[in-house]
Design goal:
The chain is an alpha+beta fold and 380 residues long. Helix content is 42%, strand content 13%. It is built from 14 helices and 7 strands. Strand 5 (310-322) and strand 6 (326-337) form a beta hairpin. Helix 1 (3-24) packs across helix 11 (183-196) and helix 8 (125-136) packs across helix 11 (183-196). The longest helix has 22 residues, at 3-24.
Length: 380
């Protein structure tokens, strides 16, 4: 392709995409203003999460934390509870940490320079570009997976989008395409095209506003692009979990505990659970009804570390949850604590344990897998 043809292809793309977006853009709550705080929160929520899922979370979050100051001053437990169900909780922690920095260093005003925005915790190149272009209309690219897919197809780019060098070249290309004075709308148009038309599978080419000059479609490669190295599948990890039922003054409640302050799902609440031993008998395929004897042995040993004794257990259900790198496959049981002695003294709970009923669950933030288990248990 000659330089003039390449220039024409780029000009066509920018003009037609911008026009299409302004005619057909979705009415999304974070698009109703240029408030940089709203845009920042929406972009963090939208990472690895669908728009339809994010909308009610965004609206509730803004009702609860309407300003930078409100989020900066909120207890972390309240923020995590508002985030409950979105997953990837480090996003919420990093967001609040960065918002506190904005409150302290910039008087609660989200900065408008690349260096300052990019220095905020949890704000990478994509989010930096999104905030600067959408809120401040600065000609900065916002390149994520959707955008790289669109550019790979339209310009017939066969470089592996998982490589850092490819991302850098895509950012350079995306910046060249931004029409003067229309950075925010153009970048959102790119995102919109990738989300609604140039989808990962079965792209809707016939309704695409830039189909006429799409080199990928002309080459019959619209479905094979982008080139992307496959990530390793998550490693399966079997676990036993137990819903410990309360008695006497705790009747109708179950025992939950808080995870450590660092690492996976830090400071969220959960049911007691333990890894399944790797002995041959324990490695057999999971079956309905489980293996109560093996589960009791593993869970009792685990809880003994917190000074708690576990009585016999019974089967409840199976549950699974996939993280980016591991997949928990859980066999879930019910059980009760053993009393402290023959005098039936109540067992003293460690400080990171609580008894809760269904209503009291609302005070605590749980990972999705434990929410599902608890809702199934209380809904029996």
């Amino acid at each position: 392709m000659s330089s003039s043809e390449s220039s024409e292809q780029k000009q066509y793309f920018s003009t037609e995409l911008l026009s299409w977006y302004r005619r057909h853009k979705r009415d999304l709550p974070w698009r109703r203003s240029r408030n940089p705080y709203h845009i920042w929160v929406s972009e963090i929520m939208l990472q690895q999460t669908r728009v339809d899922t994010v909308i009610p979370y965004f609206n509730r979050f803004m009702d609860k934390f309407p300003t930078v100051a409100a989020l900066a001053e909120a207890p972390e437990d309240e923020v995590l509870k508002a985030w409950e169900g979105l997953g990837y909780y480090s996003r919420a922690r990093n967001l609040q940490s960065a918002v506190r920095e904005v409150q302290e260093r910039y008087g609660g005003v989200v900065p408008d320079t690349k260096e300052e925005v990019a220095s905020l915790k949890g704000v990478g190149p994509y989010t930096t570009g999104a905030i600067l272009s959408i809120a401040y209309n600065k000609p900065e690219p916002a390149v994520d997976g959707n955008v790289m897919r669109v550019l790979s197809r339209y310009f017939l780019i066969e470089d592996d989008i998982m490589k850092g060098s490819t991302r850098v070249s895509m950012e350079k290309l995306a910046q060249e395409l931004i029409p003067e004075g229309a950075a925010g709308d153009f970048n959102q148009g790119l995102m919109e095209l990738g989300a609604l038309v140039c989808t990962p599978k079965s792209p809707s080419c016939l309704t695409c506003p830039v189909m006429a000059h799409c080199a990928g479609r002309a080459a019959g490669m619209e479905e094979s692009l982008p080139v992307k190295t496959k990530a390793k599948p998550p490693r399966p990890e079997r676990r036993y979990a137990v819903v410990i039922e309360g008695a006497a003054e705790h009747a109708g409640r179950v025992l939950i505990r808080q995870r450590p302050g660092e690492g996976l799902l830090a400071r969220l609440w959960e049911l007691p659970h333990a890894a399944v031993p790797t002995a041959p008998a324990a490695a057999e395929a999971r079956g309905e009804g489980g293996d109560p004897a093996a589960a009791h042995a593993a869970l009792a040993a685990h809880l003994a570390g917190d000074g708690l004794g576990l009585g016999p257990v019974g089967w409840l259900m199976q549950a699974e949850h996939t993280f980016s790198h591991i997949r928990w496959e859980m066999d879930v049981y019910t059980g009760r604590l053993e009393e402290a002695s023959a005098l039936l003294l109540p067992v003293p709970l460690p400080p990171h344990y609580r008894w809760v009923n269904r209503e009291e669950m609302e005070q605590y933030a749980f990972p999705n897998v434990f929410l599902r288990i608890l809702n199934a248990y209380f809904g029996r």
